[in-house]
Amino acid sequence: MMGSIYIIQDSGDKNFSSLLAMSNDIIVVSNRDCPVFGNHEDHVKNIREKLKYFNAEKDYLVLVGDPINIGLSMHGVLKKGGGVNVLKWDRQTKGYMPIKLDIDLKKEVTNGRDK
User: Fold this and answer.
1) How far apart are CA 77 and CA 84, in angstroms?
2) Mind listing the pLDDT tens digit for each residue in 61-95?
3) Residue 78 gets which letter from DSSP?
4) SS3 (DSSP) at 32
5) How many C-beta atoms surround the C-beta of residue 63 within 10 A?
6) What's the number of domains the chain is made of?
7) On the CB side of 23, how many CA atoms lie within 13 Å of its CA?
8) Where are the beta strands (DSSP E) in the chain?
């Protein structure tokens, strides 16, 4: 079993029950009624709070929902360092495929080249 699985946004029309075979700890970062527009500070604070214990070694993100929520969540996780694990839905196997993204935001980039 893997660590916690963070579903970025529950739209209400997707069945995530297959994730229960992968982890006992499923966390929804943002529900479908959570407004993206309006008070951005509260929204960002809520996302940060939900991802506070995300561990890049063992936890996974499911990138579904509003692109703004996905971007804020990815930024929050990558800012900690250590890359990020994501679960990508595979239409052929009808299951989630774990993918490790080794992205280091702490590296300085100049003129398109790592420094």
Assistant:
1) 7
2) 999 998 989 999 999 999 888 889 999 999 999 99
3) H
4) coil
5) 20
6) 1
7) 19
8) 5-10, 26-31, 60-62, 84-90, 95-101, 109-110, 113-114
**Which residues, 6 or more positions from 37, have their beta carbon under 8 angstroms from its beta carbon?**
none
Residue 48 lies in domain? 5-114
Mean pLDDT of 31-37: 64
Alpha carbon distance 39, 69 (integer Å): 14
| pTM for the full predicted model | 0.84
Percentage, residues of the chain above pLDDT 90: 55
In the chain the first and final C-alpha atoms are separated, in Å, by 37
Element (H, E) at 43: helix 40-50
Burial zone of 59 (CB within 10 Å; 0-12 exposed, 13-18 middle, 19+ buried): buried
Residue 60 burial (CB count, 10 A): 25
Which DSSP symbol is given to 68? H
Residue 59: DSSP 8-state = -
What are the angstrom distances between the C-alpha of 7 and each of 25, 36, 83, 107, 108?
Answer: 11, 16, 17, 27, 30
